[in-house]
């Protein structure tokens, strides 16, 4: 069975390939629990120009490419009112990653860190977040800038971004801030 056909049968199953699954030196994997605690629905797909990790931005501010969020039309009534919003929080499922890493060595940082100190896609629940600018809505499709995922990444949720409560300008990630010194 190919990796593609495995993920078609179970849309939550990761697509396994060497690029995403190889352990780097010093990385540590945990034994995964025997069963899941919850199920979720993919409510759409994010279409982007990026097919590989090398092409993909590392964070949402690295590219201003206009990408499309294709919401399953069954959920379209849920967009009512969103047209008044300038920025949305997008939650998406990093389907091409391993879920057992507890210590990681991201290539671009060159230092090992715990999974929960990183924004790496490899985590027990590979949920990613971006604050994206909403360009416009066309039916059940959102045009946005500010995402950092591969083409066809499954969408989990859309929420309005509230600068008044979501923004914490004084927040610091110490290990990251020290790197620039
Ligand atoms: C560092 S993560 C940050 C994700 C998100 N903005 C966050 O903070 O939760 C972004 C990287 O994840 C990888 N990636 C993108 N889409 C992915 C997918 N569908 N499955 C696995 N990895 C993906 C790419 O290498 C991309 O540069």
Brief overview, please?
The chain has 181 residues and is an alpha+beta fold.
CATH topology of the domain at 38-162: Elongation Factor Tu (Ef-tu), domain 3
Q: Work out the helicity level.
A: 10-25%
Shape: globular
Q: What's the tally of helices?
A: 4
Instruction: Give the N-terminus to C-terminus distance in angstroms.
Output: 49 Å
Specify the CATH homologous superfamily of the domain at 38-162. Answer: YaeB-like
The overall pLDDT, averaged over residues, is: 90
Just give the CATH class of the domain at 38-162: Mainly Beta
Describe the largest sheet: 6 strands, antiparallel, barrel
Alpha-carbon Rg, integer: 17 Å
Give the helix/strand class. alpha+beta
The number of E-state strands comes to 9
- Strand sequence of the main sheet, in spatial order? 2-3-8-7-4-9
Commentary on this structure:
- This protein has 181 residues and is of the alpha+beta class.
- It has a domain at 38-162: Elongation Factor Tu (Ef-tu), domain 3.
- The protein has helices at residues 3-9, 18-21, 163-166, 174-179; strands spanning 28-29, 44-47, 66-71, 87-93, 101-104, 113-114, 127-138, 141-145, 153-160.
- It is globular.
- Residues 20, 53, 56-60, 94-97, 119-121, 128-130, 148-150, 153 line the site of S-adenosylmethionine (SAM).
Question: Keyphrases for this structure?
Answer:
181 residues, 28% strand, Elongation Factor Tu (Ef-tu), domain 3, 4 helices, three-stranded antiparallel sheet, alpha+beta, six-stranded antiparallel β-barrel, binds S-adenosylmethionine
